[in-house]
Amino acid sequence: MDVEWQRLQIIAANLANLNSVAPPGTAPYHAMRLISGPVGTFADAMADRQKKDHIGEVKVLGLEPVAGVERRVYDPTAPEAGPDGFVTFPLIDNAAEMALLIRTSRSYEGNVTALGIAAQMDRQALEIGRG
């Protein structure tokens, strides 16, 4: 769940900087992607699979900038425009970010639901024991 929460934070930062302007001579904001993967190696995962109560774990491996060139808009009246009259914006695809946001929030929601069901099953097991 922590990985999905961090992924949501990165997506929010990307969307917040969608229309941020880079001052002349500076690099614009670059959209980032969170890279995640399993905690152990493949051999560890196969060995752990033999255990009855095996739960796979995921960790953040790092952040990676999205490849691409910044978006340039001709607006010589803007105070952020360079000597050539262009204003530089980050290359962020709003539709792709929103799709990733929805997919990530659904994954997070599924994890929260599973955690709630597990807690409910624990409570019901305790009630049976009191019976």
Plain-language structure description:
- With about 130 residues, the protein is an alpha+beta fold.
- It contains three helices and four strands.
- The strands form two sheets. A two-stranded antiparallel sheet has the order 1-2. The chain has a two-stranded antiparallel sheet with strand order 3-4.
Cα-based radius of gyration, to the nearest Å: 22 Å
Largest sheet: 2 strands, antiparallel
What is the SS-derived class? alpha+beta
Which geometry do the CA atoms define?
elongated
Low-confidence segments, given as residue ranges, are none
What's the total number of strands? 4
Which strand-content bin applies to the residues?
Answer: 15-25%
Mean pLDDT reading? 86
Determine the fraction of residues in helical runs and give it as a percent range.
Answer: 40-55%
Could you give the distance between the termini? 34 Å
**Element-by-element helix/strand order:** HEHEEEH
The helix tally amounts to: 3
Q: How is the largest sheet built, in terms of strand order?
A: 1-2
What's the layout of helices and strands?
Elements: H1 2-16, E1 32-38, H2 42-48, E2 58-65, E3 71-74, E4 86-89, H3 94-130
Offer a quick outline of the entry.
The chain is α+β, with helices and mostly antiparallel strands and 131 residues long. It is built from three helices and four strands.
